[in-house]
Design brief:
The complex is a heterodimer of chains A (about 250) and B (about 250).
Chain A lengths: L1 H19 L6 H16 L3 H22 L8 H41 L2 H8 L3 H39 L5 H9 L5 H26 L5 H31 L1
Helix pairs in contact in A: 1-6, 2-6, 3-4, 3-6, 4-6, 4-7, 4-8, 4-9, 6-7, 6-8, 8-9
Chain B lengths: L1 E10 L2 E11 L4 E5 L6 H9 L6 E6 L2 E2 L5 H8 L2 E4 L11 H12 L4 H14 L15 H12 L6 E5 L7 H17 L3 E6 L2 H7 L2 E6 L2 E6 L1 H4 L5 H7 L3 H8 L1
Parallel strand pairs in B: 3-8, 3-9, 6-7, 7-8
Antiparallel strand pairs in B: 1-2, 1-4, 4-5, 9-10
The chains are: A mainly alpha (about 250), B alpha/beta (about 250).
The complex binds adenosine-5'-diphosphate (ADP) and magnesium ion.
Adenosine-5'-diphosphate (ADP) binds next to helix 1 of chain B.
């Protein structure tokens, strides 16, 4: 029974993706929609990404500093630790989780509302592929924009660590911190982080769109779909985090 | 002309429509009437292909619509306009963008031509100076009219209306009914209207089918409806006690 429903869900998810990636009817309309979503889902997420990155970078630096107070650890390790935690885990995974909350609920409630108010039926009756028209622009927008958000998050996170660690609290000198963030730098970590970001963006958009697209009922159900979108996206992000780490870092 | 033959539709094993056969004629307002929950919406959505049907045939003219593939269905759909119960205007778009949407999607008209067509359609439904308003800024009656304008933007051959005057006051409801009837005659469209409103039935019911619990019990015109011997229909038509007393006399 449970397996039946699980298989049905997976089946419907992939059928929906199939519809999303079929040939768009009119490129110019899709282009406009994508531009709109870039602003709506991407640019509007810059603020939240910047704020959480700053504070997380600061917290990571302070934690690393207090955990390595023993003089056998050189002070520049604080900068190094801050850099690697941010690049490897924080700016891809944690930012993705925050975006699952913001963007995911947004997508699910927008598409869900369109479902229960028959706007999706209205598209279908006109002969528009509603799945593609509604979901593809969001998908493209997040796949293009989220890597940029991740890079921004890395920069602001490290800056936050430097600013609070050296200028405000003073757990480390600026020279040591800067030496640390340059020490034994592995550029591949950035690639790894960006690959994760792209996969997470796909998970957030597709799972949330799925939840919205198949809503039945009214505004109560739209709210529930929106919650489910966040919960499921988050769980799958963390699951794929493990899988991708195993695949990419070994 | 739209022909439905022996249509069956169920959801999760529960039969909602049973053996419906009916013909809808062009240039006429065809009404599907019945109590709330009787299956009107499901019937209309099955006809246009928004619901997969279990069994039966649906013909648009001489095209077997339910047998077509997705792409061929799309061609027929461009000839359909549909007015949904809650208007279903796109709330992220203005009135003008809503009506323009089918033109953007399916024509190669220039922007100037499109705006001209949009204004023509809005004019036809008596909406003026509202091009840049959003659906949330309109009254229920205006929303219905904008939805009609959007439905007729591509000059459809078929117009489907699901409870076009639900939630409207009686006077606005009559205006919407009259508008649909006029447009139907003007463009010789095949129009199907779902309603449970007896007022509409008496105003615009040229051809009426009555369904109850998914079964078609009666068909005829508004002139015949008051003299029918179908008990279920009479219960529906004379639902209020005053009417029942009158009919008994
Ligand atoms: N998507 C659906 N899934 C399951 N049951 C449905 C669905 N849509 C409608 N029904 C059921 O079909 C019956 C007819 O509904 P409907 O056609 O909406 O009635 P109405 O005549 O008021 O338009 C109702 O019992 C309703 O619960
Ligand atoms: Mg209905």
């Amino acid at each position: 029974m449970l397996i039946d429903r699980g298989l049905e869900t997976i089946g419907r998810y992939f059928i929906l993706l199939g519809k999303v990636f079929s040939k768009p009817e009119k490129t110019s309309v899709y282009y406009k929609q994508t531009m709109r979503e870039l602003v709506y889902l991407g640019v509007n997420s810059i603020g939240i990404t910047a704020i959480i990155s700053f504070f997380m970078g600061a917290a990571i630096t302070l934690q690393t500093a207090y955990n390595t107070e023993n003089p056998i650890y050189p002070a520049y390790l604080i900068g190094l630790g801050c850099r690697d935690s941010i690049i490897l885990e924080f700016s891809s995974t944690i930012v993705a989780l925050i975006l699952a909350g913001k963007v995911g609920s947004n997508i699910a409630s927008e598409i869900g509302t369109m479902r229960v108010t028959e706007q999706i039926d209205a598209l279908e009756i006109m002969g528009v592929n509603s799945a593609s028209y509604l979901i593809l622009p969001k998908m493209i927008a997040t796949l293009l924009f989220n890597p940029f958000l991740t890079l921004l998050s890395i920069i602001i996170g490290i800056f936050g660590g430097w600013f609070v660690g050296t200028q405000i609290v003073g757990v480390i000198t600026s020279e040591q911190f800067i030496y640390g963030i340059q020490y034994a730098f592995i550029p591949y970590y950035i690639t790894y982080s960006l690959i994760k970001t792209v996969v997470f963006a796909f998970l957030i958009t597709s799972i949330s769109a799925y939840q919205g697209y198949f809503v039945k009922g009214g505004s109560l159900e739209v709210g529930q779909a929106s919650t489910k979108a966040v919960v499921y996206s988050s769980v799958y992000i963390l699951m794929f985090n493990v899988i991708l780490t195993q695949m990419l870092l070994t | 002309m739209i022909t439905v033959k022996n249509l069956y539709k169920s959801f999760n094993g529960k039969e909602v429509l049973t053996d419906i056969s009916v013909t809808f004629e062009p240039g006429k307002t065809n009404l599907i009437i019945g109590q709330s929950g009787s299956g009107k919406t499901v019937l209309l959505k099955s006809i246009v292909g928004l619901h997969e049907i279990d069994r039966g045939e649906i013909w648009f003219g001489d095209v077997p619509f339910n047998k077509l593939g997705f792409r061929e269905k799309k061609e027929i759909r461009k000839q359909m306009g549909m007015l949904f119960q809650g208007s279903a205007l796109f709330d992220s778009m203005t009135v003008e963008q809503n009506v323009r949407f089918p033109l953007d999607m399916f024509t190669n008209m220039t922007m100037k031509e499109k705006i001209k067509r949009v204004n023509f359609c809005l004019d036809r439904v008596n909406i003026h100076n509202a091009n840049h308003l959003y659906p949330s800024e309109l009254s229920g009656g205006m929303r219905k009219r904008v939805a009609i304008a959007r439905a007729i933007a591509l000059n459809p051959k078929y117009l489907m209306c699901d409870e076009p005057n639900s939630g409207l006051d009686p006077i606005t409801a009559n205006l919407i009914d009259a508008l649909i009837k006029e447009i139907t005659e003007e463009y010789s469209m095949t129009t199907i209207i779902n309603t449970h409103d007896m007022n509409s039935v008496m105003e615009i019911g040229e051809k009426i089918i009555f369904i109850s619990e998914g079964i078609k019990y009666w068909e005829g015109s508004k002139y015949e409806i008051l003299n029918s011997t179908c008990e279920k229909l009479n219960d529906f038509v004379f639902a209020n006690s005053l009417a029942k007393q009158l009919i008994r006399k």
